[in-house]
Design goal:
The structure is a single chain. By secondary structure, this protein is α/β, with parallel strands linked by helices. 40% of the residues lie in helices and 19% in strands. It has 18 helices and 18 strands. Strand 13, helix 11 and strand 14 form a beta-alpha-beta unit. Helix 7 crosses helix 18. The chain is globular, with a radius of gyration of 21 Å.
């Protein structure tokens, strides 16, 4: 079937989106933990970066070097930015000292401030989709942070007195604002560094983060206690924020101990509802020891795990899948990434994995999982619509904007990737209708894949993966 015919088929498939959105209001409780922060967003051009490099006389050779992915000096900020710009990829690097944080504050600035951190972003998305109640964790919730939570009664956290209240109205006066820089760039933009000219192949962003509380996965004791109350019933617990941990902190304590501490808290939360679905959202985790520990000790006890293409490749790396890692990096397509998903599926024994790649979402789960293939597909389609609304309008802070993209066609990029995956599955498992229905199952596996709506000139890409994973899961009803 030609892509034009498939676009009509998928336009019909996508008509379930409004009904799936209505179903989200039937959800009885969701916890979003652990990281919420303030994002300072700035969109920069290649020329702007060239000017800053020249103005401050940064070493252009150093900026082009492939070195450790963290930030100790201002040079490293530009090294990370150029690395992402020339490949059109998104990465998050951690700022190691307050001096570099202050340099960014003084010389880079920001265009706007918005909710940051997977936990905070997921909470806002779930609340505006009418999930009720949504409980959001914040290691620090001063007035500046609270103001970024949507002004909705169904979105709650704990105040100074340890009691639950509307998150937007909290003001923990003694808490310090936690600010991250989101430095966005556009497809087709160019920059010249050290005599080389680079053209950006895809709109994306580089994140420079200084966050001493979330670095350590600091968990608010009052929130942890409140969520352990037997009166709190939750259908979903969505976890994130582990990506900033390191093997050993400066005081000698271990990042792995912080993971174990969180697991003990989550275990208490699940006592209120043993059937609650625990979803772990993987993020760009630079420390390989932490990355492997998360795979071995958190992914394996989660009901669902979500990641993008880069995060999947990073998992394959710590699993020792050298050849497949290389293949995915050289050709980051649906077939290679699906092979990677199969490896993680076998290794982790997690019952549901979801990949969100450019143009395509893929879910791989065990046969007979509690969420059916059709429910998954419908949830993923709503996620694609809402993600497109976020990209196209710049914000999804009102219920009315959520279905902004519901009548837009799916992309040729997504359809091409879907067709390639369908052909691969035909060779491995036999005939399928994946390109038309987005679903395939056998006696062991269920595979759901949908082409997505791509916005050519997105206003923002921040929090896209978190939005996709959470809506795909929670709207799958």
């Amino acid at each position: 079937m030609l892509n034009e015919e498939l676009k009509s088929t998928w336009l019909e498939n996508y008509k379930t989106a409004p009904d799936q959105l209505k179903k989200m209001s039937e959800v009885n409780g969701l916890i979003s933990a652990f990281n919420a922060n303030i994002d300072a967003v700035i969109k920069v051009s290649g020329k702007k970066i060239e000017q800053l490099i020249s103005k401050f006389n940064f070493n252009e050779k150093v900026i082009l070097e492939r070195a450790e992915k963290n930030i100790k000096t201002a040079d490293d900020v530009f090294r990370g930015f150029v690395h992402c710009f020339k490949s059109g990829i998104a990465e998050e690097w951690l700022i190691q000292n307050v001096e570099t944080f202050n340099w960014l504050n003084d010389h880079l600035g920001y265009d706007k401030m918005q909710m940051g951190g997977q936990g905070g972003i997921v909470a806002n998305v779930m609340a505006v989709c009418n999930v009720s109640p949504v409980y959001v964790h914040g290691a620090s919730i001063p007035k500046e942070q609270a103001s970024l939570f949507l002004d909705l009664p169904n979105l709650q956290s704990v105040g100074n007195d340890g009691k639950l209240k509307k998150a937007n109205e909290i003001s923990r006066e003694n808490n310090t604002p936690l600010i991250h820089w989101i430095i966005e760039f556009d497809k087709g933009d160019q920059m010249s560094i050290n005599g080389e000219t680079f053209t950006c192949p895809k709109s994306n962003r580089f994140i420079a983060t200084y966050d001493p509380l979330n670095f350590r996965l600091q968990i608010d004791e009052d929130f942890a206690k409140a969520m352990s109350n037997p009166e709190i019933k939750n259908e979903y617990i969505i976890l994130s924020g582990y990506q900033m941990l390191t093997e050993t902190f400066s005081d000698g304590t271990k990042g792995t101990d912080r993971i174990e501490a969180s697991k003990a808290i989550i275990k208490k939360w699940k006592e209120n509802n043993q059937n609650a679905i625990l979803h772990f959202e993987i993020a760009s985790t630079q420390d390989k020891v932490i990355r492997k520990y998360l795979l071995d000790n958190l992914a394996k006890v989660s009901d669902s795990v979500g990641f993008n293409e880069r995060e999947l490749i990073d998992l394959l790396e710590v699993m020792g899948e050298v050849e497949l890692t290389k293949a995915c990096e050289e050709k980051t397509n649906s077939v290679n990434l699906f092979k990677g998903m199969q490896k993680v599926f076998e290794y982790s024994n997690c019952h549901r994995l979801q990949l969100h790649m450019f143009g395509l979402y893929v879910t791989l789960q065990k046969k007979g999982y509690k969420i059916s293939p059709e429910q998954n597909r419908n949830g993923m389609q709503l996620a694609a619509v809402i993600a497109a609304a976020k990209a196209g309008t710049g914000a999804i802070d009102t219920h009315e904007v959520l279905l902004w993209a519901k009548d837009k066609e799916v992309s040729d990029i997504g359809l091409n990737e879907l067709n390639e995956l369908s052909n691969y599955l035909k060779d491995v498992f036999g005939p399928n209708s994946l390109s038309e229905t987005g679903m395939f199952e056998n006696n062991e596996l269920e595979i759901i894949a949908i082409p997505t709506i791509i916005i050519d000139k997105p206003i923002t890409l921040v929090g896209m993966g978190d939005t996709i994973s959470s809506v795909s899961l929670v709207a799958a009803r």
